[in-house]
Design a protein that fits this description.
The complex is a heterodimer. Chain A is mainly β. In chain A, strands 2, 4, 5, 9, 10 and 11 form a six-stranded mixed sheet that branches. In chain A, strands 1-3-8-7-6 form a five-stranded antiparallel sheet, with no helix packed on it. In chain B, a hairpin with a 2-residue loop joins strand 5 and strand 6. The termini of chain B are far apart. Chain B has no helices and eleven strands. Chain B is mainly beta. The chains are: A mainly beta, B mainly beta. Chains A and B meet through strand 4, strand 5, strand 9 and strand 10 of A and strand 9 and strand 10 of B.
Chain lengths: ~110, ~120
Amino acid sequence: SQQGEEDPQALSIQEGENATMNCSYKTSINNLQWYRQNSGRGLVHLILIRSNEREKHSGRLRVTLDTSKKSSSLLITASRAADTASYFCATPKTSYDKVIFGPGTSLSVIP
Amino acid sequence: ETGVTQTPRHLVMGMTNKKSLKCEQHLGHNAMYWYKQSAKKPLELMFVYNFKEQTENNSVPSRFSPECPNSSHLFLHLHTLQPEDSALYLCASSQDWLANTGELFFGEGSRLTVL
């Protein structure tokens, strides 16, 4: 079964608005990652947050991690049409160091 | 350009055909992966290779046969596939599977259609 699960499954916003996606996971983690996938393309790594970190920023991206709730959020500020993509959270399985992906959030940014 | 190249980008094959997907990474990484992405389903990890040795076979049917001749190249040999095997097959690499730094570098994928 998958380790992480994103919420919502789909999100549609106007350009310039902020987009927030959430990820819940089931077991203890060493780190949690977020990836983006444009339609029909490969995934691109966005940001990694370690279990001892609570918040991390990268450009217009802000990721938070709450290990007590086993959840993470990805905030994209001042969204652009080019941010339209699917966003996945991913967690390594501690026993194998395999990275397991959630089903993703499909984000549409309307110009 | 992520440094991971997959060919072909698109492949259409019949159920009796034999074909292969190729992945090459120019990043000096030691671990390589095959993922399957079907419509409306999460990415499924298929195989993991670390230093050319297969370390994970995630209950993949034998009609999918991986090959890793060296740390830079990974193949997925396909034979007698089923229409439900139609999907986007993604190759990825990472520096070292044990490092747990976690970042995967993906290729653009091979879109497979089985008729």
